[in-house]
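ok new one. same drill as before - structure tokens go in, u give me an amino acid for every spot. 550 of them this time. try not to just spam alanines like last time pls lmao
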């Protein structure tokens, strides 16, 4: 079994996962260091990072720079080595927010009914293009169902259509029966664009299935990408160089498209949900032109290193990550306009600082090195982590695992956890061992519909082939009702992405935060001690797609 190599470091005997949990024996110096985690220290970190003077830690602002300075100062105090660029703690991340100008136009040409001018904002919208200020194209339309190509799930919307040189019209959903993480991946805009490009498409129109739904306005909202030093797009969640058009069309347009083929939209939707692709040419062509304007900023990832003790394995890295940014200042809610992000994600940053503190109290470091990475621009589309995972400051092939921390929502005693993503790889073993040591149950995700697996920074590492996980609260409660998700839903409604997510007057359980820090530390420590690297499970959906990148 893979974890047998930990025996020398942790004095463990492993026969099975259950036996392993029963006989776990963390070395006394490590256990002692874990007990040095103080709830008051976590509270102090959160209080500073969520203070009004940081103005919501938006990248590119003085408030974010204050957060960067705070973290680098803490790293220095804890003797965490710099692991950024040029001997510093920093990695520059160039963020471009692009906006579609209001002059965007689209004409629809039917094979038999002439040309129709569509109305921007009512019939269609266009996502901004971060690389080209002016875009024009004309191409036939083809309906590609959900826009999914997943042969290992026995589903492929592109199997019986020719999308080459065409604009594909899709509905953004998945067949019933797709596991939640697979559905999340399949629904991700970057996956949709990659799949369309692989099949030769030059444009994607996402059709709404909500008759009463409106369309977003990207002339004011904008979409963000990371730009390389060469001025090209380096990382994005909504861009592919071969896809010249990414847009959305209203439900009424989808009805029009499907009716023109002689099909019934509801029957098409039913077939798709049941797992039967319904892809077909549409008797329309579209021509469009649009222009874009840009706002560029420079921001930073903050990266520290704890060097491993093994002469060979110290050149491999376990990455602990948390996003340092929040959304800044916005429209007032109940008289407050500063989005402090105390839980999201000052609490995560505080957790990583305390993990670094544990290591500062462990004389003999683990075999592998540890990276503590505070990423920027998560709230802008996982951009800081996407850039770091793709262009790390250490050799990419030497990153063996990622343990991400994002808004653990520690508002009640921590009795059980949900390890998002761990089930896809051997990291599940470390999760089980560490959880058992701390007396925590391990549960399935109580809210798979939240798509949390692709909504935080661990996903950036997954798509670069690095096994990753993100520990969230479980459902277990002291009173035995085991319904913590209901409490969190109520909390989320009031606090999530609102100015009310503040330290002053906020709801926190810092004893639970201590246990959360200890858990994430121990998971990373076990990985760092194991002579064998974490591995994707055989035949795993994500391992099959991305595992060869490592």
């Amino acid at each position: 079994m893979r974890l047998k190599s930990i025996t020398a470091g942790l004095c463990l005997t492993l026969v099975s996962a259950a036996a392993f949990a029963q006989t776990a024996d963390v070395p006394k110096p490590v256990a002692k260091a874990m007990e040095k985690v103080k709830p008051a220290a976590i509270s102090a970190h959160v209080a500073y990072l969520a203070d009004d003077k940081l103005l919501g830690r938006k990248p590119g602002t003085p408030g974010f720079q204050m957060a960067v300075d705070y973290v680098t100062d803490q790293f220095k105090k804890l003797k965490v080595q710099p692991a950024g660029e040029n001997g510093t703690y920093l990695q520059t991340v160039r963020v471009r927010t692009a906006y579609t100008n209001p002059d965007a136009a689209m004409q629809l040409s039917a094979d038999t009914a002439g040309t129709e001018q569509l109305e921007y904002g009512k019939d269609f919208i266009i996502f901004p293009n971060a690389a080209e200020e002016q875009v024009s194209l004309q191409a036939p339309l083809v309906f590609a169902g959900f826009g999914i190509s997943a042969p290992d799930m026995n589903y492929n919307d592109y199997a019986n259509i020719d999308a080459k040189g065409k604009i594909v019209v899709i509905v953004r959903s998945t067949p019933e029966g797709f596991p939640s993480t697979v559905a999340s991946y399949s629904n991700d805009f970057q996956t949709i664009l990659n799949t369309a490009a692989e099949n030769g498409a030059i444009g994607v129109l996402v059709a709404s299935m909500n008759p009463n739904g409106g369309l977003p306005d990207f002339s004011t909202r904008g979409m963000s990408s990371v730009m390389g030093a060469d001025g090209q797009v380096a990382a994005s969640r909504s861009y592919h160089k071969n896809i010249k058009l990414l847009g959305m069309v209203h439900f009424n347009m989808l009805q029009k498209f499907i009716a023109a083929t002689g099909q019934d939209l509801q029957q098409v939707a039913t077939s798709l949900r049941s797992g039967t692709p319904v892809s077909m040419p549409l008797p329309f062509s579209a021509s469009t032109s649009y222009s874009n304007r840009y706002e560029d900023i420079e921001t930073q990832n903050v990266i520290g290193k704890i060097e491993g003790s093994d002469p060979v394995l110290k050149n491999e890295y376990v990455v602990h990550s948390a996003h340092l940014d929040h959304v800044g200042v916005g429209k007032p809610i109940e008289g407050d306009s500063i989005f402090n992000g105390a839980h999201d994600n000052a609490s995560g940053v505080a957790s990583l600082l305390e993990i670094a503190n544990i290591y500062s109290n462990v004389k003999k470091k683990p075999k592998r090195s540890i990276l503590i990475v505070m990423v920027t621009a998560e709230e802008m589309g996982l951009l800081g982590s996407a850039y770091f995972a793709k262009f790390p400051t250490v050799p990419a092939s030497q990153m063996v695992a990622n343990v991400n921390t994002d808004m653990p929502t520690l508002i009640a005693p921590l009795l059980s956890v949900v390890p998002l993503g761990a089930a896809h790889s051997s990291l599940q073993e470390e999760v089980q061992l560490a959880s058992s040591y701390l007396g925590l149950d391990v549960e399935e995700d109580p809210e798979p519909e939240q798509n949390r697996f692709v909504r935080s920074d661990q996903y950036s590492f997954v798509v670069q082939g690095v096994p990753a996980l993100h520990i969230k609260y479980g459902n277990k409660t002291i009173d035995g009702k085991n319904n913590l998700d209901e409490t969190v839903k109520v909390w989320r409604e009031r606090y999530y992405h609102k100015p009310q997510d503040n330290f002053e007057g906020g709801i926190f359980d810092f004893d639970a935060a201590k246990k959360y820090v200890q858990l994430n530390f121990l998971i990373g420590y076990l990985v760092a001690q194991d002579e064998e690297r974490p591995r994707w499970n055989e035949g795993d959906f994500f391992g099959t797609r991305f595992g060869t990148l490592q």
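The chain has two domains: 29-95+296-549, 97-295. and btw The domain at 97-295 is CATH 3.50.30.30 (Glucose Oxidase; domain 1).
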